[in-house]
């Protein structure tokens, strides 16, 4: 049974809703992009159902960024990733990330979710995961009790846990 998540940017210029079958902050991405955009530790994601995303205010305030994978010698983009990050053009709050590699899922940033408050906890027996450790400084801490991966974890994310009836399968 999906849960309706209500989110917004800091200045409230943008508001949105999205349904989630797994409405828990479950993954900390520590890739170079999430650390640059989200802060020193990275970005905490939730998983939503892409087709249910509804922008209820401020669609014209949303700006999207497709991260650069590599630059040329003049710092001009040479190659870009597939993922697209949405943020408020007024206050710069990160809203969600979408990658057409996984078209059914959209990843709202936990920091943008207003309701439910508080967000549900991880189900018993599921570890918070940290991913993309291969692109961050080794002295960057891993939260206590988290399961860390150099790249992406096996499976499809927390929906993989959901599909396996609560058994995290590596």
UniProtKB/TrEMBL annotation:
<keyword id="KW-0862">Zinc</keyword>
<dbReference type="GO" id="GO:0046872">
    <property type="term" value="F:metal ion binding"/>
</dbReference>
<keyword id="KW-0456">Lyase</keyword>
<dbReference type="GO" id="GO:0016846">
    <property type="term" value="F:carbon-sulfur lyase activity"/>
</dbReference>
<dbReference type="Pfam" id="PF04828">
    <property type="entry name" value="GFA"/>
</dbReference>
<dbReference type="InterPro" id="IPR011057">
    <property type="entry name" value="Mss4-like_sf"/>
</dbReference>
<keyword id="KW-0479">Metal-binding</keyword>
<protein>
    <recommendedName>
        <fullName>CENP-V/GFA domain-containing protein</fullName>
    </recommendedName>
</protein>
<feature type="domain" description="CENP-V/GFA">
    <location>
        <begin position="5"/>
        <end position="150"/>
    </location>
</feature>
<comment type="similarity">
    <text>Belongs to the Gfa family.</text>
</comment>
<dbReference type="InterPro" id="IPR006913">
    <property type="entry name" value="CENP-V/GFA"/>
</dbReference>
């Amino acid at each position: 049974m999906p849960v309706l998540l209500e989110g917004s940017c800091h200045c409230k210029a943008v508001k949105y809703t999205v349904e989630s079958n797994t409405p828990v902050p479950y993954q900390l991405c520590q890739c170079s992009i999430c650390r640059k955009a989200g802060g020193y530790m990275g970005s905490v994601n939730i998983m939503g159902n892409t087709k249910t995303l509804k922008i209820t205010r401020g669609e014209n305030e949303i700006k999207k960024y497709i991260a650069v994978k590599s630059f040329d010698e003049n710092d001009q983009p040479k190659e870009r990733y597939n993922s697209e990050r949405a943020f408020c053009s007024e206050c710069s709050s990160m809203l969600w990330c979408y990658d057409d590699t996984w078209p059914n899922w959209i990843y709202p940033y936990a920091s943008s979710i207003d309701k439910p408050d508080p967000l549900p906890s991880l189900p018993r027996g599921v570890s918070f995961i940290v991913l993309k450790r291969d692109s961050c400084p080794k002295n960057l801490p891993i939260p206590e009790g988290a399961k860390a991966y150099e790249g992406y974890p096996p499976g499809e994310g927390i929906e993989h846990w959901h599909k396996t009836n609560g058994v995290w399968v590596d």
